[in-house]
Amino acid sequence: MVQKDVQDDKYFSECIESGLITCPQQYPKAENTTFEKWYRLIGVIGASESEVTSTVANFLKVFTVPQITPLAGAPDLGSKTVNDNLLRTSPSDKDTIEALMHFLM
Predict the structure, then answer these.
(1) Which helix (H) or strand (E) holds 102?
(2) Which pLDDT belongs to residue 102?
(3) Which one of 19, 28, 33, 94 is most buried, by most CB atoms within 10 A?
(4) What residues have CB less than 8 Å from 105, skipping those under 6 apart?
(5) How many domains does the chain have?
(6) Domain range for 98
(7) Where does the record place the Receptor ligand binding region domain (predicted)?
């Protein structure tokens, strides 16, 4: 998910004015390179594997970008102490096994 045309964003404009962010248009133009607009990442969907999800979540945590994971089942991914911005759409492997055991007994 990407929010387009961030240059219209008030906060982004203030960051540029204060020197916190440098606009690519201020860089010398490289051959065959054009910078027309900035885009801001506002969320990530994926990955389906727990190990990849964990790695991506640790990176995105620094920027407080939310991540939605459809299938990752590692129990520690659901912990709010690990990452407040990680949302899962399926239960952890532990919860799934407990539910199956309850169903079978």
Answers:
(1) helix 93-104
(2) 93
(3) 94
(4) none
(5) 1
(6) 2-104
(7) 41-103
